[in-house]
Design brief:
26% strand, alpha+beta, 9 strands, 211 residues, two-stranded antiparallel ribbon, 5 helices
Length: 211
């Protein structure tokens, strides 16, 4: 079938996001590529008010530039103990106008943890948008099964630095240390599973020209 050879562009350079989706999509016959694979760069002003808007801005910009089926993804961070003016929201990595490196993110958020008592209850809200053949499909989900601490795990997940300060209470482990089986069980309990993967596959296969 022709769709088995379909290339889909992921509008990100985050290695953790690429790794998370690439293998599972390949098993479904979808080859996930990035802008680096195409040999050029694209700067996008992510000025949306939430995760879905930023995902759309990225997906549309990359789609318009390449005409390839494109996935845009973004995530917002909300921390229960912080006042409104300190909520990261859409600016998880960009603080005071500066884009932070992985190490700078860890330093910034551990300092927040220390400032607010040694533990912060966190929630991620995700947005995903697919542009294909001028059609737009949207999907959103959330995860709130963890909290931040100020003791940093030695292990790192490049692109997702906050995994090194995130504790999952069910397993009493850092998120970065959890096994794939533990992550699967956690997702099943939260009714998350692989819905984002299913959303991508179903959208690509069911959209006109995706069959």
């Amino acid at each position: 079938m022709e769709w088995c050879k379909m290339k889909v562009l992921f509008a990100t350079i985050n290695p953790a996001k690429i790794k998370k989706y690439k293998e599972k999509l390949e098993r479904a016959g979808i080859e996930l590529i990035t802008i680096k694979d195409l040999g050029f760069e694209l700067n996008v002003d992510e000025n949306g008010k939430d995760a879905i808007e930023n995902a759309y801005i990225k997906a549309k910009a990359y789609y318009d530039a390449t005409k390839l089926p494109t996935i845009g993804m973004d995530n917002n961070l909300f921390i229960e103990e912080l006042p409104k003016e300190k909520q990261p929201g859409t600016h998880v990595r960009r603080i005071h106008g500066k884009r932070l490196s992985d190490d700078e993110m860890i330093a910034y958020y551990t300092n927040l943890v220390k400032e607010y008592g040694g533990k912060l209850t966190a929630k991620w809200i995700y947005g995903m948008v697919i542009c294909i053949n001028n059609e737009i499909k949207k999907y959103s989900w959330s995860k709130d099964h963890f909290y931040f601490v100020d003791k940093v795990c030695d292990k790192r997940n490049p692109g997702y630095p906050l995994d090194s300060i995130s504790i999952v209470p069910k397993f009493n482990k850092y998120l970065v240390e959890m096994t794939e089986e533990e992550k699967r069980k956690l997702n099943e309990e939260e009714n998350n599973g692989d819905e984002a993967i299913h959303f991508i596959i179903n959208t690509i296969l069911n959209c006109k020209g995706g069959k």
